[in-house]
């Protein structure tokens, strides 16, 4: 068939290229077009080609062919002519087409009639008709439909109606009812294109004839609708209307369909009554429900069509009629169990609901009256939708709910937009809708709660929160979640609905609506009956998580102070009861306080409430019974201070306005309150550090680190709160506190006793002030001078130095202006470089971060600064080998920063190369790793590219280094260099590269896979013929083996491609595990064919071969050395043969197997040939019986004899060397990873216990 995007000009301009296509139809098209071009002239116009093609087609229709091949060739030519006509007609003026329409109509109608008459001849229909729709007749009619449709689209309305009607009826309209699906599809598509024409519109006859055709078909079908054939014809008509009804007079045609739908629904709703009319007879038929489904699908397709927006007025009128008609029906009776197949009922329920939802959506987009109509009918529609979505008792099917409830959520959002236009109607609508939706809270809907609860919550959110129905529904939802067990199946669905409700209405509203305070106060009176009181901890945690994900909220601190805190005091007063209840109520107190950060996000009453609330917060943080409150309240204070500051800065440009005045008052309020709050937080930090020594001692006794971790978390939360409050606090307070910190820090550093914990506490507070960015320049300078002795000295504990580095890192990050000064920059460099020898291991990470921040702060460094930076290369390289992964990552960032600031990458590389010649292997490996990363990051730098060949030669010298870590770095560098260096530059270095890689024979198992990757990369870059001469002779077998594997894989792929059909099935393509490798065979052991997966597949094949009775078994021993010609091992291998001899190289290689260490396994079949002797037969039967007995015992048949039993002396306790024994006694146990599994571990231990007497040795000790 002709491509849809092929045009007339493209066809005649590209005849040569089209004639070379592989598709024979395109080739025929090019040949026919070339012949027409010769007849029409050198530069033919579309009109000329159209005229010649019509004449040629008319001439071929009068020829009668008896031979089938000649007839097939003639029809192919006619199809090509029709394609050309369809292309040419688009470039012809409508007047020209109107003048020749009589001849064109006669020829095109004749072609359709000739083809249809051919199809009726049974002798030839087998040859010219196939099931796939790609036969000659189908493709011919396909091309004819397109050509006729193109002609009709171009005909003006001035053309005689009779001529157009005759052409249209006998061609496209006739093919709409064709039995071939592809022909029918193209006919319907072309007809819809004609009907959808707007500017210009198609000929009026097309609309008239199509409407008449639909009416005739509908009248014929409705007369005997109970008949199976008439019902199927009517469903086919509906299938056509599904595409074309939108373009017809759907008010009339759709009205008839809806009238029939109502009659069918009423008949289907009746259980046993028998009526005399045809509709009642249809009710008794099993085709009633499918017919209803087909009508609903047609209406739904029209409602969801893209052209509906252009006909909104008529469309809304039709949608209101559909909605009113369906709202009066009883869908639960129509789709009751047993009325049809389960799939038909399920699809029908979904379509019924979709039609109602789509009609409601159209009406809600209409004018005022239409929106009111939709809101009046919506409650009844929702009642139908809920009843249709209810899972049946016979099956747990949620497909209907999965279809309807997401669309219902969209409808509810659309309903909320109409709240302002008609508030009273909207209020009554949502109230009635809530009554209908509240049914989904029943247990019978539990399997669809994940779908149905969200629309319910959306409906609740657009209602008055103080309404009685809303309160009742919210309480039912919360009680439903409280009554469920923690591991309930649908707990996630209910939690999600409550969380969505909290995010929508807010914590305060939900709290009030469900009466949480009142419910919790009756905990002693009726605790067992009060599910909310029992599971209040669950609800509080859910509220907290929901408010956290809500974003900016407008909660009031007064609610927290007057409602939440009294409830926390109530639970705190009840903690004196039993131990179990006391612990639960303490957790409830903490959960209530955990809501505090949510109220601090954007409080509405900060000015009036916070001054009185601040002292309560301080007292709560000092309560030793609830240490968790420190982190919770600190987080809330940080959120509060950060929010006030951001809102103030965001509205700083505004001068006037109530909002700006309120923000300024809030900032001033926090400034006043922080004068007392910040010192209290300082005191808390000091108290926590003062208790650390006792906690550490107790931790050592109890063996737990939880207290230390909790202490770190509390201190971090407090310092974050101090930093946030200090940004709003008064400057004089910050300076006074800072002065005290520095004074105490100096005193502690000069004290004779160990005050390390106090120094860490003071440094932590100083760090928080630095983070706040509220310190003056002089204070930062003073702090820097205080840090110098702590960084340079190693006499204090490592924690002190680490903390000092952290403070210095904050200074370098936050106060770049301070660090950039020349004098200060020199002091910072001098401090960091001179303290290298005294730096503790735990401080190395923060030290590297300080160096990175200092280097990054330099914009245009001078020569002196560049030298200072370059001097950091040595420390950076050593840090690349640090045991801490974070330190290695930080060192890598520092290396890249140095390279970036230095600007001369050659100088950096030269310095690193010098380190590669160091006396220690540690430094050499670090230098090679650094080089590999630099060439990877700066692979496009021209200066580096010119240096790479020389650099690679230098690094190849390290291939003989005995250190394993140097070898690792060397292999990584070569792997990166092979990718980065251009092919022409790497070719001269091939001998050195291969000699260095293949000459490595120490611990091949460690780096073999990486070396294999490099060699494969070189093979892809060049080829085997290029690499073979430069490979050492001792390792040439490796490349030979690789080449054999690749060639064998090519042959197998070629064989598979020849055996496989041209077109693959989709499932075959998706399920295929084939990849662009050697089909699972890698060079893991330099000469092996098997991987872990292929070994497993081979084991499965061997096990199936053992159990197959018809398998042919051969006995063979294959011997082949590994890459070193050593370590031969004898093993057993059973393989199913397929008639191939072992002399074939490809087949014999497939029998070779290697173990995990690369040693060859020599296979020997366990079973003998069927032509064995009687003795051998007896042995085989005994072996088979023994194996079956072992398998019955549990499959443990590996070691039937105790390990070393053949060497044990009978009369002594040790081993004995028997006569004729060449070697000393020993017991050899082959290593097998399966023995270490849980299943086989016990048996392996028992086996070794005969040799290693662990129990006796321990007893002797």
Automatic annotation (TrEMBL):
InterPro entries linked to this entry: ARM-like, ARM-type_fold, HEAT_RRP12, RRP12, TOG
Protein's organism: Cylindrotheca closterium
Low complexity: bias regions: 1103-1112
Pfam families: RRP12_HEAT (PF08161)
Name by which UniProt lists this protein: TOG domain-containing protein
Disordered as annotated region, ranges: 1089-1114, 1182-1261
Family in the record: Belongs to the RRP12 family.
GO cellular component: nucleus
Domain of life of the native organism: Eukaryota
Lineage: Eukaryota, Sar, Stramenopiles, Ochrophyta, Bacillariophyta
Domain TOG, chain residue ranges per copy: 768-1010
